[in-house]
Amino acid sequence: MYSFEFARPGSIDEAVKALKAEEAQALGGGQTLIPTLKQRLAAPSVLVSLSGIAEMQGVCVSDDNALCVGGATPHAVVAKEAAKSFPALAGMASRIGDPAVRNRGTVGGSLANNDPSACYPAAALGTGATIKTNAREIAADDYFQGMFATALDEGEIITEVRFPIPEKANYQKFVQPASRFALVGVFVAKYASGVRVAVTGASEDGVFRWTEAEEALSKDFSAKAVEGLKVSADGMISDLHGPAAYRAHLVGVLTGRAVNAAA
Amino acid sequence: MSLSISLTVNGDRCDVDLDDPRVTLLDLLRERMALPGTKKGCDRGQCGACTVLVNGRRINSCLTLAVTLNGAEVTTIEGLAAGEDLHPVQTAFIEHDGFQCGYCTPGQIMSAVGLIAEGQAGDDAERIREGMSGNLCRCSAYHGITEAVQDAARRMASADERKSA
Description:
The complex is a heterodimer of chains A (about 260) and B (about 160).
Chain A: E1 5-7, H1 12-18, E2 24-27, H2 33-38, E3 46-49, E4 59-61, E5 66-70, H3 75-81, H4 87-93, H5 99-104, H6 107-113, H7 120-127, E6 130-133, E7 137-139, H8 140-143, E8 158-164, E9 168-175, E10 182-191, E11 194-200, E12 208-209, H9 211-219, H10 223-227, H11 244-261
Helix pairs in contact in A: 3-4
Chain B: E1 3-9, E2 12-18, H1 25-32, E3 51-54, E4 57-60, E5 73-75, H2 88-95, H3 105-118, H4 125-131, H5 142-164
Parallel strand pairs in B: 1-5
Antiparallel strand pairs in B: 1-2, 3-4, 3-5
């Protein structure tokens, strides 16, 4: 790691102030950032730890039936606390990485990083979540802007994420067995207003909505409704774990499975 | 820059002055506290050899900056046995040949202790394998590890029953 200064703010306001320093970088659970620093792929001047901010911790259900998760809440806490109120989201959180990663990694960190194979982006986009920051609220549809790119400004902190609780939902992940990232992951959520389908791990542009499947499922919420639909392999990720056509095929298969398993 | 933290390691309260914020919990334990039982494998969170418990939860100590752990309670492999009496998970690993070279074993055992405390895996071999998936064993002693975790969980549950009876 290159040398850096370290700040341990106790409140969001203090963290925002600390992040105004040039080349400052927020630190969530560090499960991606610490390895990145060790490989000298980043050189922040100040690391601002968000883990000591009590107001960014915890899970609750709001009056308008959204699951509200503090930005610095670890995955293991979401897996436990949301098990009854939003089982699909809890199930997704309980299968991120491995147990040690889930005890440190945070929802805010995952969404701020926006890894194209991470699970949380699919849950946020698939539920039409609202990403609350220190400065504003961002709709998930506007938030994700391509691989590792988001609508966040420099120094902006995700303080809370609100996931509207659906009537039914499920997340299906085809696991890349070494990293436990999604080779492809599909989040399906059924609301009174319609169905949302978000796909992670597949596209070179990061998480995306499969609108064709959304339309079909909004009319008929059954695996049969998406049986004939195909996703183009153009722009899909191709690597040693699976070529583009394979990933495109998995999108259809996992969407069907998610619909069948939705609860 | 001087950063001081206070934490409890295996029951002993320690005040630590860190001259550099880059010190990970793993390096703090091994290099500065003479606790080399926690192993450095990949040093990037992939192998689990450095697993310790922080506030009862298992984490990769190589991916945790010590400076973020003010007030934390840390348990390492050195803190498990009570004098000469091994922890039930340690005993079970020996009885079931849950290792070969032994390098990953402290991490495996700390992870198993964390898993049993979480109370989610029960006796189900597949759920135990999933729950231990963050800990790699290059000698591939996985069969013995799974058996050891099952056995230790059973023993600890029946010991708890005896206590409460």
